[in-house]
Amino acid sequence: QVQLVESGGGLVQPGGSLTLSCAASQRIFSNYDMGWFRQAPGKERDIVAGINWSGARTFYANSVKGRFSISRDNAKNTVYLRMDSLKPEDTAVYYCNTNPAEARYWGQGTQVTVSS
Q1: How many CA atoms lie within 13 A of 46 on its CB side?
Q2: Which residue, 28, 64, 78, 94, is the most exposed by fewest CB within 10 angstroms?
Q3: 70 with 81: CB under 8 angstroms?
Q4: pLDDT tens digits for range 25-77
């Protein structure tokens, strides 16, 4: 069964940094556009960053532009999200998925908590 496994979350102080990783169980994901999504308590799940299959094109939600950076290593079947200058409002569960997202690929996510 194809899986996406997120890791790298944790508790960080405002202004801190984290790098999230998303490991795919199959090489097939190197052919897909991918995205990082997040869901805060009581809110909908929204995309925060996307990257095309080759890594040549990226986009970001306005709320994270200039602070987050998405990248991928297709040889390792892994997508990354570097998060700098973190704010309390970045607190959420972060997920990766194809873009557009497919329900069958949602994983457990990784919790990011930004708090002093």
Answers
A1: 14
A2: 28
A3: yes
A4: 887 788 899 999 999 999 999 999 999 999 999 999 999 999 999 999 999 99
